[in-house]
Amino acid sequence: MQPDEQAYHYGVIRRAIEVIDAGGADLSLEELSAQMGMSPAHFQRIFSAWAGVSPKRYQQYLRLTHAKSLLREELPLLETAHAVGLSGSGRLHDLFLRWEAMSPGDYARRGEGLVVRWGWFDSPFGLALAMGTDKGLCGLAFAAEVGAEPAMADMRTRWPKAQFVEDPMALRPQVEAAFARRGETALHLIGAPLQIKVWEALLTIPEGSAATYGEIAEAIDSPRAVRAVGTAVGKNPLSWLIPCHRVLRKGGAMGGYHWGLPVKRAMLAFEAARTEADAA
After folding, report:
1. Which of 174, 197, 226, 279 is paired with 53 by a 20 to 30 Å CA distance?
2. Helix (H) or strand (E) holding 91
3. How far apart are the C-alpha atoms of 205 and 242, rounded to whole Å?
4. Considering just the CA atoms, what is the radius of gyration of the chain in Å?
5. Is-contact 191 237, C-beta < 8 A?
6. Is the whole-model pTM more than 0.70?
7. Residues with a known catalytic role
8. What's the mean pLDDT in 209-225?
């Protein structure tokens, strides 16, 4: 799938969410495609290309009730951050992730002396802003819901003293590997010590599953720090790759999402559909 097709397909998914939220969860293919202003064949083709399952099946993943099924009662206990350490590996199907965390002292300098390269890319979830250092990707933001300028401003304020250089070609190989879900992508985690622990715990949540804020707090040996965990989840600079979209409120409520709730729902549905397609 070409990048411009990915952006177009996310736009279709976004419109489908609106239709389903308006009461169209049980619409037939013909009815749903008509509301989308598309022929059934075109609509079916887009969903098959983007999600790997039928539009009808995808509707089930987009329903809010699907989130509850992700919180399985026997979800394996998340590995603690201290067991993972400050480097390790994770898998998103055939994508190999390796990461390194910035030291607390370097983080306290708010990016001083750090060169951060950036560029805009099309993704399965709309326009994406990628940022990276010489050690790997340090930022991944999605602008489809919040807008390009706010997304850029948001990311730049995280490391206000860094030098920002537009250089998409330097980032392209790792960004393309990340969205293609194959190859290798290096991550550079830039955050406070507690944030790093939370983000490393997020990396252990299996695709097709979810965890609560309380479970994340338990995983980092800070069971009383649920609110702080929630703040750290919201500050995650590497959305999608560090899967903060897999964190739900107790009982399965979606909660919020820094880059817009429709993006979070699309990500969860995308993963569920791909997991089903890969299993088949």
Report:
1. 174
2. strand 89-92
3. 9
4. 19
5. yes
6. yes
7. 244
8. 88
